[in-house]
Amino acid sequence: MARSIYVVCEDHDSDLGHINEIAQRNGYSPQVFTRVSRDLIAFDERVHSAVILMGGCGDHPTYPAEYDCLAAAIASKRPVLAICQGAQVLATLHTRNPRSIKLIEYPDAEDQGLLPLNLTGDGKVDPVMMPIAETGARMAQSHSYTVKKLHKSAVQLAHSPSGLHCDAFRLNALTYGLQFHPEVPSWLKESECDPGEYRKYVDCADQVVQAWFDTTGLSQRRAT
């Protein structure tokens, strides 16, 4: 049984944050590839139990490989968690163009810091988003590009307070795109946040990641 998670990061200095610990706690070892080094290999369902696309910045020649990886994972019914730029890549899988005009906009101001999410009706009952629904925690965000409009096959789970762009969606029961950062990234400094809001975010973010493992069945398969 596959016990490795295929992870794409920006570069080798990028960190998985709490996702690394949560994955290992569930019995999985992340196999990390980077956009900068262009070392992505083909997704292999015999080796990889899931895919996680982390955030990044700029355009990369690895996008075709990321699209191939996503398509293979979805076709083989493997779970996918796409974060920030990874969510933008996932949202444009059907066009294979990460800057599709109908899907991506460039806001006047970058969203950064601990920001509130507005959950949709679907988001309020979605098991992965449930920790946010229950706690009202603000989530870490840092992005300029963002998903403006989803493909008709996607279910929107959250949007920005302005309602102008999507903050979370799912393509199916195993495939999630999150514009926010549930990994507790190192660039978010506790000293620069309200202490209570930061602790609330960390606890909730960990629950969101674990909920993805639980909802997609990864945690149930860890002992096999």
Helix content bin: 25-40%
Q: How would you sum up the global shape?
A: globular
Rg over alpha carbons:
16 Å
Query: What's the CATH architecture name?
Result: 3-Layer(aba) Sandwich
Kindly provide the name of the CATH class: Alpha Beta
CATH topology: Rossmann fold
**Number of distinct beta strands:** 12
Sketch the topology as an H/E string, one letter per element: EHEEHEHEEEHHEEEEEH
Characterize the largest beta sheet: strand count, sense, and whether it forms a barrel.
Answer: 8 strands, mixed
Question: What would you call the structural class?
Answer: alpha/beta
Name the beta content range: 15-25%
- Tell me the count of domains: 1
Q: Distance between termini?
A: 7 Å
Residue-averaged pLDDT: 88
Number of continuous helical runs: 6
- Low-pLDDT parts are 101-109
Model description:
- By secondary structure, this protein is α/β, with parallel strands linked by helices.
- The protein has one domain (4-215): Class I glutamine amidotransferase (GATase) domain (Rossmann fold, 3-Layer(aba) Sandwich).
- The chain is 27% helix and 24% strand.
- It has helices at residues 18-25, 63-75, 85-91, 121-125, 130-135, 195-215, and strands at 4-9, 29-34, 48-53, 80-83, 104-105, 111-115, 118-119, 139-143, 146-147, 155-159, 166-172, 175-178.
- An eight-stranded mixed sheet has the order 2-1-3-4-12-11-10-7, with helices on both faces. A two-stranded antiparallel sheet has the order 5-9.
- Helix 1 packs parallel to helix 6.
- The radius of gyration is 16 Å and the shape is globular.
- It starts with a strand and ends in a 9-residue tail after the last helix.
- The relative contact order is 0.17.
